[in-house]
Amino acid sequence: MSDASLNSTETQAYDAGFGDYFALLKPRVMTLVVFTALVGLIAAPVAVHPIVGIAAILFIAVGGGASGALNMWWDADIDAVMKRTAKRPIPSGRITGDEAFAFGMALAGISVVMLALATNFLAAALLAFTIFFYVVIYTMWLKRWTPQNIVIGGAAGAFPPMIGWAAATGSISVESILMFALIFMWTPPHFWALALFTKMDYDNAEVPMLTVTHGRRSTRVHILVYTVLLAILAVGLGFTSIGGPLYLTVAIFLNARFLKGAVDIWRRDEDMAEADRFLTERKFFKASLIYLFAHFGAIAVEAMLMPYGWGGW
Questions:
Q1: Residues 263-274: what's their mean pLDDT?
Q2: Of 125, 243, 223, 92, the residue nearest 175 (C-alpha)
Q3: Could you give the CA distance from residue 94 to residue 83 in angstroms, rounded to a whole number?
Q4: Residue 235 CA: distances (Å) to CA of 40, 178, 245, 255
Q5: Residues 164, 296: contact at Cβ < 8 Å?
Q6: Where are the bilayer-spanning segments (predicted)?
Q7: Helix axes of 160-169 and 121-132: crossing angle, nearest 10 degrees
Q8: What average pLDDT does this structure show over 291-300?
Q9: In the 8-state DSSP scheme, what is residue 137?
Q10: How confident is the model at residue 7, as a pLDDT?
């Protein structure tokens, strides 16, 4: 079990504030959860009352935040030795493990129950499974056990558009699965690029990230392979009912640039200056953030234009 639970009874140096609890929710990750869930809701072929839609997105966001809090509770020992995460609320002593656990569990329960009441039981069940998958399957098991942690575990971050679609339609469809697949295939190259320029963090924390277990060269090859597969999927999605000319244009342009970034990482020399290596990897990582938001933004615009005779095929 995580050292977070062992240290959870330690006394805090001061009372935690709103900002400390908000940080437990992983707000940057929550932004992606909210946005992709909203796109799933907008792209669905069923009109949703604005109040219902707002409630659905709110409770999906709360569920995502619950996952983040529970992840930080369990991973406090890892976070404490990684520079990127050492200032998080638990390792920095601003919030105890027990408080984070109680906070996360409360939010998880509230989000699932309220989403069921606001929309339907399928959407709530998907949200509950997403929280379970992220906390138990990924955080407690895969992350510390296999270098494929982010490949399999990436499914947790891919569920939000399916939840949004289910909230609107009460069903799962090919379209919602394709949106899931887009995020699922994007996640490995996104996180492997991050791991390349934060490799020592994972070494120190003894997390079996691909960079640690198989080395940088293998990781760069994996990034290229997954990026090629991602590009095929992303462009192909443009020919489905949630795609269209606008989405296809965006997908072709972005995937051409993303493929170039993956090739640059694959071709670069390990003997080159560390600063130059980091620049290439950071550039690809930042591009990956724009990549996903732009693709889902294009899906949303296609859906919003369709009633006016624009967009779609």
A1: 76
A2: 243
A3: 17
A4: 18, 12, 11, 8
A5: no
A6: 29-48, 54-74, 95-115, 121-142, 149-171, 177-198, 219-240, 246-266, 287-310
A7: 170
A8: 97
A9: I
A10: 46
**Look-up of token digits 């070494």:** 203
Tokens 């909203």 belong to residue: 38
pLDDT at 290 over 70: yes
Residue 205 pLDDT level (bands cut at 50, 70, 90): confident
Letter for the amino acid at 134? Y
Which CATH superfamily, name and number, covers 1-172? UbiA prenyltransferase (1.10.357.140)
Distance separating alpha carbons of residues 84 and 172, to the nearest angstrom: 37
pTM value?
A: 0.90
- Closest-CA residue to 178 (of 82, 77, 36): 36
Q: Could you tell me the residue ranges of all domains in the chain? A: 1-172, 173-313
CA atoms within 13 A on the CB side of 292: 29
Structure tokens at 151: 């490949």
CB 175 within 8 A of CB 43: yes
Type of residue found at 28: R
Alpha-helical (H) ranges within 119-244 are 121-132, 149-153, 155-158, 160-169, 174-197, 199-205, 210-213, 215-237
Residue 245, CA atoms < 13 Å, CB-side half-sphere: 6
**CB neighbours (10 Å) of residue 87?**
11
Mean pLDDT to the nearest integer, 285-290: 94
Q: 3-class DSSP state for residue 25?
A: coil
List, for residues 231-259, the tens digit of each pLDDT value. 999 999 999 999 999 999 999 999 999 99
Average pLDDT, rounded, for the chain:
90
